[in-house]
UniProtKB/TrEMBL annotation:
Keywords: Cell membrane, Membrane, Transmembrane, Transmembrane helix. It is found in: Cell membrane; Membrane. The keyword NADP does not apply. Belongs to the 4-toluene sulfonate uptake permease (TSUP) (TC 2.A.102) family. Its main location: membrane. This is Probable membrane transporter protein. The chain crosses the membrane at residues 78-97, 104-122, 142-171, 183-202, 208-226, 238-256.
Amino acid sequence: MSGIHDLLAGAGVGLVSGLTSGLMGTSPGGGLVIFSVLLFGAEQHVAQGTSLITQIPPTGLAGARRYWRSGNRSPWPWIVWIGIGFLVGGAGGGYAAAAVSDRVLQWTYVIYLAALIALLILRRDRKDGGREADDQDQQPRLPLLLIGLLAGFSSGFMGIGGGLAITVGLAAGLRVPQHQAQLVSLVFSVIPTNLPAAWIYWSKGLMVGWPAITGILAGLWIGTDLGARMANGVSRSVLRRVMIAFVSLMALYMTYKALT
């Protein structure tokens, strides 16, 4: 596969992954893993390493800025406690992934996505959506830390960035308004909290070539900004439906890969 082809394919992977990231306020890792397998024919460990490595630069900055300008906020206590959990969980997930087979990772990915779909379907919108500015610092530390641990472990173990766990954990578990939960998730695509997990994959050479990496980064910058613009123009219920549909497609595709 030529360098030009890898560059263009990488740009396509990054653009689609960035669009879903900005639209749903999750890290782009889910799309990066799946499309790296689909377009590059990468093995599961290589796809996950590629996903984590390309998420180190702050490619979600433009998307986070769009949410911020629309009046959403990400309280610093939330960032601190989720971040602590993320760093610890990420390192543990990375080492755990290196010890299991591609098939185990694929089925774990399917189970994880199915659990997220169930949480999204069962979640009810909170009726006091206008109160997030008043109680934004009142979330208990332990649940935030646990959300960070889950997000970090899923990031390291499955290479998906952890954004889905943060968005669903805040929105479904702590009843944070959807757009605000998505902003907090995008903040973690700016802060390099996945660095410990990415280094584990990097040290083992589990990544695609540099032309593809360059294309993915360019696509992520553009796609995340476009997706965030789209997200701020739709309702919370529409966003949740879009997320359920996208995660369902991811789960179906990974089920197919695990069975073949």
